[in-house]
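G.,

No rush on this.
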Amino acid sequence: MGTPDYGARLAAVLKHWPEMDVLPHGYGGVEFRVGKREIGHVHVSGVADLLVTVRMRRDLVAAGRAQAHHTLPHSGWISFRLRSENDIPAVVELFRLNYERLRGTGQRTTPTPMLGQPQLLADRVADDLPA
């Protein structure tokens, strides 16, 4: 029996989300894009990598929902190793969080600045910026 094709299984779910494109990934596997922005990909080995903000990476890793990327651990990249069919709902939820963030439909993680007090880019910490 061969290795399960987790990329195909995820593609079967994610391809139905509005504005989602499913493409072959440059290093093998399947890539998922919203418009021109990649939200993540799944390697043929069963490892899903997603590009989130540094703050999201820190929170997701601390909560045990993902691991820091093996070669870029301090970036916004996170990894999730799919070991069985039971892992699919958890990785779909990670893709959903990132999808909603990129489409602007997720909940804000930072408070809205008060009127009359503009928030300058220099006033934000690097954790709040997209990776």
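When you get to it, here's the other one too:
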Amino acid sequence: MNNLIILPIIIPVVTGMVMVILRDNIWLHRFLSLLATVLIGIVSVLLLEQIRTIGIQILYLGGWKAPFGITLVADMLAVLLVLVTAIVTFCCLFYAFSSIGPERERHYFYSFCLFLIAGVNGAFLTGDIFNLFVCFEVMLVASYVLISLGGSRIQLRESTKYILINMISSFLFLTAIAFLYSMTGTLNMADLSVRVAEAGQGELLTAVSLLFLIVFCLKAGLFLFFWLPGSYSAPPTAIAAIFAALLTKVGIYAIIRLFSLVFYHEPSITHLFIGILAAASMVLGAMGAVAYWDIKRIITYTVVVGVGFVLAGYASFSLVGIRGSVYYLIHDMIVKALLFLAGGTIIHLTGTGKLREMSGLIRLHPKLGWMFFIAALSLSGIPPLSGFIGKIFVIEGTFQSSYFWLGGIGLFTSLMVLYAAMKIFMNVFWGYTNLTEDMQKGTTRGLLLPITILTLLTIGLGLGAEGIHEYVDLAVEGLMNPNIYIEAVLVPKGQ
């Protein structure tokens, strides 16, 4: 057993509780929140090396072996996502120092951010489906507070919708878990895989799998994304960036994990359905990005396109397609945070998000302009940036699986996203401007460093993709061969 596995969950919880007690010391809150994300990153790197050299790491809480106790499982995919979560959160929290405002800081902003991260990391690392539900709820309760923190009219309106939708999806999640437990007698995901394989994934189990898919579609914003554009554009920039980078990704991870480990026996039904939903998400999301002339709305709709693209590669259920999904998932977490932070900085400087009311900003802020340009190219999959690596594998995977229609939609919507991103760049940064430094509504002081870090990451992931391919390939191998996961959990080494 490896006790390191629980640290990405324990560190943010304990740190957040300490900050609740020490409410008035904002500088200590800032330091502790960054320290917590750095420690999570260090633990993740240690776990990555252990998994690469030894194999999947397991922790049986209380010493109760699977499938009877609570099991935490650190495989390559989960720990890669925990590491990227730590990096993205570090950048968003650093950005918040200069943008979130003292009122929100005093009302436990940093504590609830860390509680949210604890839920996200728990969802990635849990080995049973009920605790996946628990971690979802921890994440969502923290997000309820964050989305409404500040109490502006638009926040309260969108938070009401956000909470209602997630209450419905959580009810459906519990219902699906109850059906699954009644049919299999277990909730441990490795044990579920064995029992479903033994019993055969008949019509009833396939129906339950589709119920789970509906739940995770609501969580991830896959096709059922009607709640997402308003909810992600209402809160302040730092919170919106965390939401866009992390929350939908937990839903994506749940789909990938469950339909690779448990419900993988009827891909002609389940995975084809995922592919259809992914195609619809890409098309509708791209249409929204092209149609709007508001920065927040455009960037928010690209979140929907990203969800569809990740799951398009997974729907192909081929080695190269799933490799593309993993690459693109990592890329999307970084570039979505980058876009939201850059877009929020533009609004902070100009006092508006409407494209027709601004121009020529690059004259005063060339660094911000060119970093946004790089982010836009990476989002669209232009080489040699990080988005290109994932997109080329996803398209190849869909073609290999004869899903030519899905690959074609992916290519077409990539062009639409490129148009939408360039629409922002050309209207905001290009052309003549009457804006002077004295007329600006804010300053970039303290805001450019986290944007720079994320920009360098998206460049580095593109140019240095060879450096992480071993880790990505191990993650893909674990998804394509469920027995690796099952044996690690149910047959511990030395027994």
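Residues 3-489 form one domain. The longest strand covers residues 57-60.

Enjoy the weekend,
O.
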